[in-house]
Amino acid sequence: MGGAPSTPRNTGGGDDVSVAEYLISTFVGEKLFPLAFDYWNKLLELPLSSRWPSDRVQQACELFGRSNGYTRHLAKLLIHLSWCLQELLQDSDDDQASSIYKRAVNATYISSVFLKHLIENGKSDSLEELHLSLDDSEPVPHGFVMDQDIQNFVKHSVLSFIGLTEVSPNSYVLHQELLNFMIVAMSTQLLSGPSPGPRDTNPFIDAAISQEKSLVCLAVRRLLLNYISRTPPSGKTYMYSDGDSPCILERVGSAAATFVLLPLNYLVNNSGDGSKHPLAEFSLHVLLIFTNYHRPIMSDESLTDKSDDSATSESVSKGHAFSSGNIFSKALTNARDVEFDRSDVEGNAYPGPHVRIPFASLFDTLGMCLADEGAVLLLYSLLQRNSDFKEYVLVRTDLDTMLMSILETLYNASKSTSSNQIYMMLIVLLILSQDSSFNSSIHKMILPSVPWYKEHLLHQTSLGSLMVIILIRTVQHNLFKLRDVYLQTTCLATLANMAPHAHHLSEKQRSIKISLAGEGDGVSEDLAAELQIFTDFLRLVLDILNAILTYALPRNPEIVYAVMHRQEVFQPFKNHQRFHELVENIYTVLDFFNNRMDSQRSDREWPVQKVLEFIIDSCRFWRGEGMKMFTQLHFSYEQESHPEEFFIPYVWQLAFSRCFNPDAINLFPVPHQVEKQEEDRRGEEVEKGKEKKVQELIIEQIIVLDP
Questions:
Q1: E strand or H helix that includes residue 700
Q2: 703 — phi, psi (to 5°)?
Q3: Residue of 82, 211, 605, 610 with fewest CB within 10 Å of its CB?
Q4: What is d(CA 554, CA 544) in angstroms, rounded to the nearest whole number?
Q5: Which domain holds residue 592?
Q6: Which residues does 478 contact at the CB level (< 8 Å), separation at least 6?
Q7: Interhelix angle for 373-385 vs 644-656, to 10°?
Q8: What family does the Swiss-Prot or TrEMBL record give for this protein (predicted)?
Q9: Which 8-state DSSP code applies to residue 632?
Q10: Is residue 394 exposed (0-12), middle (13-18) or buried (19+ Cβ within 10 Å)?
Q11: Same domain, residue pair 406 and 490
């Protein structure tokens, strides 16, 4: 201990493997190498060209897990990584930078592999196995502060490099590897339960959250620009070569190709595998993890007295915990468009540094990528948090570029779309529908055709009509398949916001096919609750129809025709205490048009086109006399009190779910757990179906507004 390693002499290219074997085995072994020893340079400068099979990688990780507590090699490797990044941020010639890049990529990749193993196999709640500190007896170089937090040191260096360095052919792989490393380092969240608590240990992400605002803004800006630019890998660009030895990076597009002893698929199930834009995807995942992180802090009264044997960790309630704030979320919230000066509408300058990005490019990128769940989540985050971006979206005259992708995905939702993605898309539509100008403008955008809509040929249909059709279709699918109350409420709330602004809804427009349970004895508690849900649902449907007839009747003759065509379906609700007032308005409309038609029509039936012409003409005489005016419905989206309980697991499912040891994940159900839950759910549905059949209490009332 204390001497430099005696590495085998390299007498030919084939000896590169033996040199690598020796240096890696000493890294994971029990021999301790001080921070300043030349061993670290030799390890990080290896031009490797061979691979270890996954079982040998696993053995190396297990050896490292046992020795790291004594050697502190992970902490030392992270320090060397930070030094490499700091050197790259300084001015240096091309030859020197090439060598430093090589060391930095190797340091990043080796750190990721062994850090991932330590995290997913950690036994203690505090993750002491990481040993992110140096021994007090460790000799350190001049100028190094011994007692500084290594996780803070490395996070500052990583964020500085990402924020200050442009992505170029020479830096592409290092940027990608650093993003990989950040995902691995922040994966300590996977060990926690779905509800973040003040005792959760997330050293690396907490270190990132504690960085200064200016650095965080630079990092968030770079992550967004990476996502917007979608720079592809440089293909067969060769970066480094040591004379006749194999090229260090044979393909820039292969992340971590430098350290080929450790196969990439052991590190992460690369979401960019086969992707044309892996850097953009990694940047998006890192940004979502950062901006959705929640760090509860215990107040004094919430601390449990450990001397009390009856006290447990469960005694810490959410009511006594508060969030310390998330500087990354604030940076996204306050992002501004590069096209405008940093001042608000009143001319007041925004204090301090801000993220400045091209909103136009971001809008266009999101419009192209909304089939991806991560893109939908980013769009939601921007609309929910960033008022400037929301205003920018609402004034775009080409909203169809964004909405058509959402509507097509919802149209195909029954095939493979995840329920979380459906939720997020519907919430996006609800947020947009809160703006009256949006509701008006989408009915003025005419679509020449909708090729992906198969039920009917839709020609010259307004974007608003298509949105109504898709929302109603989603409601129908949910009623008879998913039976999700939250999804149902969100759809109907959006329709209610749109109703007063409806304009020439398509003749193919349909209302909702619903089942309303009757009332009677012998209803089980579960069924009674479901009947109440359906009753509330029908009330809202009638509210929506009332809003169209009250505020937009002359602009929607097709709706009047549909109500007249199926007027008998409203009869059962005339005397219902929850519905009679709303139905009275519908009958006021029916009486007006029926009376005018009876006075003009002979005994012979009129064809559809003539009826429509009659309605259009009669609309000119409609004054709304006798209509009861109800408070106009307007729904706004509000996050629940603890949104992190949904968003943190969801973000990690997108980023990392299939590449982490499933037995170590507590944040969300892993695939084999999901399969078990699905089996249980199906069993419950069968039992509920039997119960409904026995009751025979469902009175189907079909409201199909169809010519």
A1: strand 698-702
A2: -110, 95
A3: 605
A4: 16
A5: 526-635
A6: 484, 487, 488, 491
A7: 150
A8: Belongs to the dymeclin family.
A9: P
A10: middle
A11: yes
Q: What is the pTM of this model?
A: 0.81
What are 285's two structure tokens?
Answer: 């995942």
Q: Measured between alpha carbons, how far is 484 from 51 in angstroms, rounded to an integer?
A: 49
**Domain assignment of residue 412, yes or no:** yes
Give the total number of structural domains in the chain. Answer: 2
Q: What is the mean pLDDT of the chain?
A: 78
Residues 6+ apart with CB under 8 A from 509: 465, 468, 469, 472, 558, 559, 562, 705
Beta strand pairing status for 356-357 and 459-462?
unpaired
Nearest-5° Cα angle at 613, 608 to 616: 125
| Residue where one domain finishes, among candidates 607, 635, 663 | 635
| pLDDT value for 297 | 64
How do residues 599-630 score in pLDDT, each as one tens digit? 887 767 888 899 999 999 999 999 988 898 88
Which among 504, 539, 567 is the end of a domain? 504
Neighbours of 435 (CB within 10 A): 15
Are residues 496 and 533 located together in one domain of the fold?
A: no
Distance CA 703, CA 510 (A): 9
Mean pLDDT within 321-339: 83
Indicate if 533 and 612 belong to the same structural domain.
yes
Asked if 457 and 515 touch (Cβ cutoff 8 Å), the reply is no
Contact between residue 559 and residue 505 where contact means Cβ atoms under 8 Å apart: yes
Residue 34 lies inside a defined structural domain of this protein:
no
Contact in structure between 500 and 547 (CB atoms under 8 Å): yes
**Residue type for position 290:** F
pLDDT, one tens digit per residue, over 81-105 is 999 999 999 866 677 788 899 899 9
**Could you count the other beta carbons within 10 Å of the beta carbon of residue 573?**
19
Could you give the CA distance from residue 204 to residue 188 in angstroms, rounded to a whole number?
8
Question: What's the CA angle centered on 251, arms 248 and 256, to 5 degrees?
Answer: 65
pLDDT tens-digit series, residues 529-558: 677 777 878 888 899 999 999 998 999 998
Closest by CA position to 98, among listed 19, 151, 45: 45
The DSSP string of 633-646 is P-------S-THHH
Residues 496 and 536 reside in one and the same domain: no
- Token pair of 473 as six digits: 């279709």
Same domain as 626, residue 534: yes
CB-based contacts of 319: which residues, under 8 Å, 6+ apart? none
CA 348 vs CA 164, 334, 391: distances in Å: 28, 14, 18
Does an H or E element contain 120, and which?
helix 94-120
586 and 629 assigned to the same domain: yes
In a domain, 425, yes or no: yes
For residues 498 and 532, membership in a common domain is answered with no
Question: What is the sign of the dihedral through the CA atoms of 591, 596, 598 and 604?
Answer: negative
User: 454: buried, middle or exposed (CB in 10 Å: 19+, 13-18, 0-12)?
Assistant: exposed
Amino acid letter for position 407: L
CB 159 within 8 A of CB 181: no
Q: Which residues pair with 356 in a beta bridge?
A: 336
DSSP state of 321: E
Residue 559 lies in a domain: yes
Give the integer Cα–Cα distance in Å for 265 and 190. 19
For every residue of 536-564, DSSP letters joined together read HHHHHHHHHHHHHHHHSGGG-HHHHHHHH
Lookup result for tokens 């403008």: 441
In the chain, the amino acid numbered 467 is: M
- Where does residue 612 rank: exposed (0-12), middle (13-18), buried (19+ CB within 10 A)? middle
Most confident segment among 1-15, 68-82, 320-334, 415-429: 68-82
